[in-house]
Structure formats: structure tokens, C-alpha cells
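Something for you to look into today, if you have time. What I am after is a single protein written out in full by you. I want to see for myself how the chain folds. Could you add the entry underneath, on a fresh line?
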Amino acid sequence: MRQVALAMHNYHSVYGALPAGVADATPYWGMGNWQVSILDYIEQSTVRTMYYDYGVSGGRVYYDPANIAGATGKQIPILLCPDD
């Protein structure tokens, strides 16, 4: 949780606000969430580049085959509950 909190603060330092809960795209459903926004700040830039069309209106959603083969098909240990 500490690393996620630090990532949120680092994001805030760069953009002046916390990451949005969902992507700023139309439709917002299925376009990604705040976790995509902080990937660069938790040393997961490679995974971030594999997430296609985050925040792009009408772009590929998180369950698109390209995203499943890339970013959304990856488990990122820092974003998992330790009990999982």
C-alpha cells in the first residue's frame, strides 16, 4: 500500500491532481482505470506501453485481445492483495 500511495503522490506532483478513477474517454466503461495511470510510477512502464488506447475515445477496451495479450493479461504483484 505504501508503494501505491507513493505512486499516487508522484503522479500528483507531475499532474497537479490524483489520477482519475476511470479513463477520460467516451465511453469511459472498459477503457481502463487509475491503475493504468500509475504504472509508470511503480516501475511498470513496460506494461504501460502494452496497454493500447488508454484514454482514447472509441479505442480498444481492456478486454480487447491486444490488451489481454499485453497489459491486462499481466499480474502486477504490487497491485494485488497480499492475501490473494
